[in-house]
Amino acid sequence: MASKKTSPGICYLVGAGPGDPGLLTLKGKECIEAADVLVYDYLCNPEHLRYAKPGTRRIYVGKKAGDHTLPQEEINALIVQLAKEGKTVTRLKGGDPVLFGRGAEEAAELHDAGVKFEIVPGITSAIAGPAYAGIPVTHRSHASQLTIFTGHEDPTKPDTSLNYAKIAQADGTKVFLMGVERIDEITTQFLKHGAKPETPVALVRWATHTHQQTLVGTLADIAAKVKAAGFKAPAVAVIGDVVTEREKLNWFENRPLFGKKIVVTRTRQQASGLSKQLTLLGADVIELPTIKIVEPQNPMLFGELVQDCHTYDWIIFTSPNGVDAFFTMFDKLYNDARSIGGVRIACVGPSTAERVKARHLAVDLMPDKNFVAEGLVKAFKDHQNMENVNVLWVRAEETREVIANELTGMGAIVDEGLAYRTVAETEDNLEALARLKAEGADMITFTSASTVEHFLNLKVALPEGIKIASIGPVTSTAIKEHDLNVDVEAKDHSIPGLVAAVEKFWR
Hints:
The chain is α/β, with parallel strands linked by helices. Helix content is 34%, strand content 21%. It starts with 9 loop residues before the first strand and ends with a helix.
């Protein structure tokens, strides 16, 4: 039989991993970046979608027990149709695409339709889930064999294809996926076929996510514990003596902020640094950007100041956004970094300084610890006589005038380069707002007065009992002006300082 003509498109069947964004493979990330269309499932972490290029079409085909956005047959037809249109399609599936993921069926449909495809393996929750609960699926002292089976078979099959007699008596560890709703039936079958009632069992829900939950019991009592706790899917179950290792190896759930839900209100571009540090400590982070950065009202005037940057004695940066805006304009005007001349650079704090250093430029002045405008003014007073010193201050349109007023009072000649504006974020936070309303949170963080103002303008009621963390005194003043309490204020007015203060508060 002659082979069918291959379509010009391609479909990548990609395993998105079990949930932790860091467990997406490099190949999987490349496929997301290349996609014209993303077709993704319920168990795919939305964080992965951010790797998509602008304009990528996103199609949610979420599948969970009893609730399918699209039936499998329609998903098959969809990816075939899109690839035949010449699109690069990335089909994101939770875990691994072919381990009980129906990826093989999708691949067969693509093959039969003459569509080019690739299968990109992913890290399966069958191994990662237990590992994140401190349970190795194999261990020299407990198990050198692993059996993986599904607790959710094809419902149209008249009989189960699982041989519980063999599985129950098999050596080593047993792991089953998608079976929490049938835990009573599965454990009954194990016991019926000779498994020991005292055999340890653990269920890991939302494995590798920051809101992971683990329930431990035995074959005799785990079903009752599941019912009592209201333990729901998605969960992976592990059966065997390896479960006893959890007491020593439970690293993920023992982190200092595990179980704490913390809201980050920075811009989407800036949020990742704070979110990552909180996540590494175990926090479940809700990124809720309240502001976004846009061009100044008069970019031409700002461009003229940047063009003359080499004529100043000092350039002052008081935010990472100011650094980015300055060099975006600088790169449009000049093609040689040396065009900045011999001007010296002052920064309000380490985050801003790091952004300057990324341009391979030295920072000549920064406060020792008080990383606010007042601290930078004091640093100048201690550093030199400012009489007739020419200064370009790169700032946001809404920034307090402390630096200009104080340096002018010291005799400096200050030009203010209005580099950007902060405006309300009205589109990129709807999902996070819905989550905050539905789930609540333990703490909300504010990193500037503008994030405070714009969050309150959203008219979203703060969850009862939520704690408020501030990056420093200026932000704290803005919080208190709205009759809110500041529960945490960073001593070091920087992102690492804020993270340290939050960690200390919850210890």
